[in-house]
Amino acid sequence: MRAIVTESFGGPEVLQLLDVPTPEPAPGELLIRVSASGVNRADLLQRQGHYPPPPGITDIIGLEVSGVIAEVGEGVDDWRPGEQCVALLAGGGYAEFVAVPAGQVVRPPAGLDLVSAAGLIEVAATVTSNFTRVGLAAGETVLVHGGTGGIGTFAIQYAAALGARVFTTAGTAAKLALCRELGAEAAFDYHEDWQGALLGATAGHGADVILDVIGAKYLTANVDALADDGRLVVIGMQGGRKGTLDLSTLLAKRGLVTATSLRGRPVAQKAAICAEVAQTVWPLVETGTIKPAAETRFPAASVAEAHRHLASGDAFGKLILTWG
Predict the structure, then answer these.
(1) How many domains does the chain have?
(2) Helix, strand, or coil (residue 318)
(3) Which CATH number characterizes residue 63's domain?
(4) Which of 60, 172, 199, 243 is deepest in the core (most CB within 10 A)?
């Protein structure tokens, strides 16, 4: 099979399309013939040597795919070859075939193009699992940083579908407008005083929940922007790994700061998250309540171009690699 291989760490130029052995499904696994692979910021980090795969997982990059079942491993009874699917991966998605634990494979939403479906499972799993973790409820105020990325565009719509008041940050007038179109009550330019703008828009209440992809750079401002009993969930480190936390502020607000990563979770946990996505998110997609993010497609051979585009900051929504 063909796969995107990195024989060293570095810039997009280290990504090579080469022939490698096709994996075989172990008991409890499915072999998927890949139609499309989602491109995520974690992929850029892995390429640079900053986000290694969990032990025992292939070095091939890629956290989500869509495709059709090519082979069913021993002990898997509810799939048949030829069925369409999407899969949440710990690695291996930049390839024509990938072997995946069956619990991390679900059928795509009805009516959704199979290639577009490749860019939905990872963001849906990330957002739903984290909003469930911090108990986001109807009527609460949520702040989503990075509102026009794959995570952000989904999180705005999902939080709104849950009945939350949604606010977000973005960096250009066009991106701010898109956030409002997706359902954000207001969108704030992150180059300006977004914390003050949030407090003004909520009459000083702040955010009951903050979903943050930035990390250290925003830690102090995020805690200051929390409402009483507010919850900050950190899911990315685009703004650094180490920050200073004022515990007195956190104590006064009875605040919670938590951080999660999806990739390294046990298979059983990821299977439960995928089941939640299929049960709670897919119906919202099928009714049009949640619309898939705007996407940019690249042939697999143009993977370096895809990585450059994502790193540029100019990308809207999801980037997807297609396999002919």
Answers:
(1) 2
(2) strand
(3) 3.90.180.10
(4) 60
- 199 and 216 part of one domain: yes
pLDDT at 176 over 90: yes
Contact 211, 237 (CB under 8 A): no
Other beta carbons within 10 Å of 219? 21
Taking the alpha carbons of 228, 232, 238, 241 in that order, is the dihedral positive or negative?
Answer: positive
Residue 240 is predicted with a pLDDT of: 87
Using DSSP's 3-state secondary structure scheme, residue 98 falls into strand
Same domain flag for 7 and 52: yes
Q: Which residues contact 204 (CB under 8 A, 6 or more apart)?
A: none
68 by DSSP, 3-state: which? strand
Domain that holds residue 14: 2-120+263-322
User: CA torsion angle for 25, 38, 322, 274 (degrees, to 10)?
Assistant: 50
Give the CATH number for residue 174.
3.40.50.720
Q: Write down which residue in 244, 259, 274 finishes a domain.
A: 259
Same domain for 72 and 7? yes
131 and 227, same structural domain?
yes
- Asked if 88 and 208 sit in the same domain, the reply is no
Which residues, in sequence order, are CB contacts of 67 under 8 Å at separation 6+?
32, 33, 34, 35, 36, 84, 85, 87, 114
CB atoms within 10 A of CB 38: 28
Give 103-106 contacts, CB < 8 A, sequence gap 24+. Answer: 103/267, 103/268, 103/270, 103/271, 103/272, 103/274, 103/275, 104/267, 104/270, 104/271, 104/274, 105/30, 105/32, 105/69, 105/79, 105/274, 106/274, 106/275, 106/277, 106/278, 106/282
Over residues 249-308, the pLDDT tens digits come to 999 999 999 999 999 999 999 999 999 999 999 999 999 999 998 899 999 999 999 999
Q: Strands 141-144, 165-170: parallel, antiparallel or unpaired by DSSP?
A: parallel
**End residue of a domain, out of 259, 280, 300:** 259
Q: Are 141 and 240 in contact (CB under 8 A)?
A: no
